Queue: 3 jobs
Job 1
Amino acid sequence: MILWIIIGIVVSILITSLFHAEHLLNRIKVFLFVLVALIVLFSIIGFFTSNSSNLNSPKGIISSVYGYFGWLGEKGLQLVTVGQGTINTVGNIIKDNQTTVQSKISDGRK
């Protein structure tokens, strides 16, 4: 129930701030901020409601927080790895295209 109240408050703040923002860039900033906040909120809720977290003792809370930030770091590294793979793929395509263009130029073809 509390989760739906938080979501309702966030959505109402988003709608209110979008109508009061004068410039499109400000609206985009507000939208992205709320989107990131919701993603973090749902990731925290998803992690701490799993069976791996124990919130009954201070030691369990601290280990759960360490586990959450470790999980968050792992997901961040996965995003970086996907980005590196994409950069490598695009770089290889550009390199192949330049090789093809250079071979056509040396052959006198267009």
Note: The chain has three helices and no strands.
Job 2
Amino acid sequence: MKIESKSTENHEATFEVSVTAEEFQPYKQQAARKMAAQAKIPGFRPGKAPYDIVQRLYGGEAIAQEALDLYLEKEYSRLIDEAEIEPGGMGNLTKVDAFDPPVFTVRIPLAPTVDLGEYREIREDFEEAAVADDEVQEMIEKLRDQNATTEPTDSAAENGDHVSVMIKGDYKEIDPDTGKTDFIAETPQDFVIGQDAENGGWPIAGFTKNLLGVKAGDVVTTEHTYSEKDAPVESLAGREVIFTTTVQSVKRSVKPEVDAEFIKNFGEYETVEAFTDFVREQILHTKQAESQNAYIEKLTDKLVEGAKIEYAPATLEAEAQSMLDNLKKRLAHDGIDFELYCKLSKSDPETFVEEKLQPDAERQLKRRLTIQEFARTEKIKLDFEKFKTLLGQVQSEAAAEYARIKPKKEKDAFLNGLTDVAMNQAFSDAIFDRLIAIGKGENPEIEPAAPAAESVVEGSAAPSVSVDSNEVLDASAEI
């Protein structure tokens, strides 16, 4: 095999390859046997017809074409080695100048490269999370709302009251298609005044304001003309509808007092003050996580912005295709067709891929490649103790689901999946802990890579998983 480099553009390498007749001959023999095995040649068992018989039936060029396919299948890895390149995917045969012996041109995408630049100079102010007293009281009020009961009231309905009704809708004019005025058959419905969003704005946006001041037994008539904007279907635009609402009951929410009885719903707390402190801690924990995620997002953006990232078009195409395949799987799981999804998004498949999917794929690819290079450069290692802790947590959370699985093979696969989740989370945490330290100006020293056996915590058994920074969860690139 003789390989001549022709060009390197768009992070792709193009080579002209020449194969000697002597090297190619065994593949022609193999191709002839394969063709003979696939055809019924009179007088010979499958695959046993002599080469000259196969050549006479199919022609030398057909054998050479089949032989070239076999050659590339077997010798492609040697071609890569001799070309001294690191491929980023399968190459494409772009031109064949001759089949026997072969002379052809192949274009091979190169592996992505990332130069992080002066990434250790990245700095970003970190905003510590804090909890104000009014945030604590707001959360306690939400908990009171969630535990509120309702009691009938003879008073006129107010904002927040629960109103049970029978509602019927009629067209103001006879429907020419049905000859009737029926729009919505009389049906029971519960409303909370002022919370129209919980009913999806049914039957019309802001409907519950018509129930302010009502009492049980009242009948409320509401007229509405649908516009093109609020019509649930196009045919309703411009139609006038009358809603007749008969009030069955009005109930008012009664919030529990924040006392010893109330706080028992949330755990064993000796005092209201202790419960309030717990609520404050929970809010602080949530805000700290949000603050840290926002900080990581800013640092990652700066890391990507400062990096020089190069990859072949085929690499981006593969990323986009993977995202599209995953999207289709999720939609299929929910019983939604991709084309319907595009229509609901006011788009079409081609436009959606071009304007939405491709930019998202490019962003995700750049982030993942940059984070992977950051992990390699910083020699990030898995904290095995943290991995074990996370594994225990995910196994505990998934215990009920695991118990429902019966076949052993499926149980093992499920456990392996949990192991991967915990491992990737532990490794991802290690990556972003280092990035945070750099962003704060701490710049910890890069530890030399230790042999696998030395990286395990002393006294612990080595995990049955390996960590490769190239295989960090794709989600790590999506903060």
Note: Residues 120 and 438 are 6 Å apart (CA to CA).
Job 3
Amino acid sequence: MAISDEVLHAAAAALSDAARGENIYLPAAKARRIVEPALEAAIEIVRRRSANPRIERTRAMIREAIESQRPGL
């Protein structure tokens, strides 16, 4: 899975800015090397959790509850 350059750039800039706020020098290139695997790991965790059948059943129940409250359906 590829994360877009725009997202990586924004995340690296945010990490670099946060480090600067703590008086830590963190160049954008190094921040990007830190951010990219972290984002990929986070996305994989979300993907695995969303495939959980219990979560899917909960989502279906919520969808049904919302749809049953809509007038005219």
Note: The mean pLDDT is 84.
